[in-house]
Amino acid sequence: MSLRANFAATLAGNVAFAASQWLILSLLAKLGDSVMLGQYALALAVVTPIAMFSHLNLRSVLVGDVERHHTFGNYFAVRVATTLLGLGAAAAAALVFGYVRPVPAAIGLLSVALGADQFSDIYYGLMQRRERMDQIARSMAARGLLSATALGIALWLTHSLVAALAALAAGRLIVLFLHDYPVSQARREPPGTDFDGEYAILRQALPLGLVLMLASLTVNLPRYAIGARFGAAQLGAFAAVASFLTVGSTAANALGQSAMPRLARYYSANETGRFLRLTWQLMAVAGALGVSGVLVALAVGNLVLRLVYRPAYASYADLLVWMMCAGVLSYAAILLGYVITGARVYAAQAPLLMMVAATSAVGSWFLVPKFGLNGAALALAGAWLVQLAGEALILRRALARMGETG
Fold this sequence. Notes:
Blueprint: H1 3-31, H2 34-55, H3 58-64, H4 72-96, H5 103-129, H6 133-158, H7 161-184, H8 195-230, H9 232-242, H10 245-268, H11 272-308, H12 317-342, H13 349-371, H14 373-405
Helix pairs in contact: 1-6, 1-10, 2-4, 2-5, 2-8, 2-9, 3-5, 4-5, 4-8, 5-7, 6-7, 8-9, 8-13, 8-14, 10-11, 10-12, 11-12, 12-14, 13-14
C-alpha cells in the first residue's frame, strides 16, 4: 500500500478508536456522574504509566528491525513477560496506595484491558511491517466500538463503574482473539525463541519503555495534582476537556505510524534528502493540526462541550482553549518523536523525557494551586515545549551521524 493509503487507513482506525474513548467519557458523564468520571480518570492515571513502561514501544522496535535480526517469537516472548509484570505492578499499586472503592477494582480491570491492547499492538507490528495499516485500522475500529458499546450497556443496566470496566476489558479481549491473532498469522513468520535474542530486544526497548512511562507521567502529573487539590469531580471535568487533545494526537499518531517504516528505511539507507523532506512534511501537518484546534475551541468550544458531555461542562470553555494551545506543542512533539525513533535513536529519549516529566511535576506543583485547571494546561504546555526542543537537538545529532556514514 502507498503511504497515502496507509495514512488514510491508519487515520480512520485511530479516529474510530479515539471516538470510542470520547464515547466512554461521555457515557460515564451522562449515565454516571462527575464523581464516577473522576474515579475512572484517576484509575486510568494510575494504570497508564505502568502499562506504558511494560509496553516498551515494542512495536516500533519490531518495525524498525528492517534487517530481521530477531524472530517474531523473540518479540512475543518479551511482550508476554513485560505484560505480566505490568499487571502485577498495577495490582500492587491498587493495594499500596489505599484508594477508596471502587478505584482499586477499576485499576485492576483497566490493567487487563490495557494488557489486551499490548498483545494487539505486537500483532499490529507484523501488520505495520508489511505496510498493511488497513488491517490495523479494522482492528482499532472494532476494539473501540465493541468495548465502548459493552461499557455503555453494562453501565446502563448496573450503574456500576466496575461492571462497566469489566465489559470494556471483555470487548478488548474478544477482538484480540478473534481478529488480531488470526490476521497477523496469515503469513508465517520465522518461529523460535532464544534467551540471547530476547535479552537483546529487552535491552534495546527498555529506554523506549521508560520514554513511554515518562510521557504518560507528563500528562498525568497535573491530574494527580488536581485530584489531590480539588477532588474527583474537578479531575473528571479536566479529563473530559483534555480528551479533545486526542483529535490532533490521533491524526499525528496515525501519520507518524504510517511514516515510520519509511523513515527507518531512509535513515538506514542514508537517504538524507528524503528523510528530511518527510520530516518537514510531518512538522507542517503538526502545525496545521494545532492551529486548527485553537481556532475551533475559540469559535465553538462552548457548544461542543454542551453537546458531548452536559450543559454544565460549557463553563470550562476557557480551559478548552488553553488545552488546545498546549496541543500545538504536543502534536509537534509527537511527530518529531516518531522521526527520531525512525532514526533508531532510543536511549537519548529517556533523559529528555525525565526533564519533560520533571517540568510537568514542577509546573503542576506551582501552577495548579494558583490557577486551578488552567494551571494544569500551562504545566503541560511548558513540558511539551521542553520535549520539542530536546527532540530537535537529538535529531540534529542523528543527522550528523547519518552524514558521517553516508
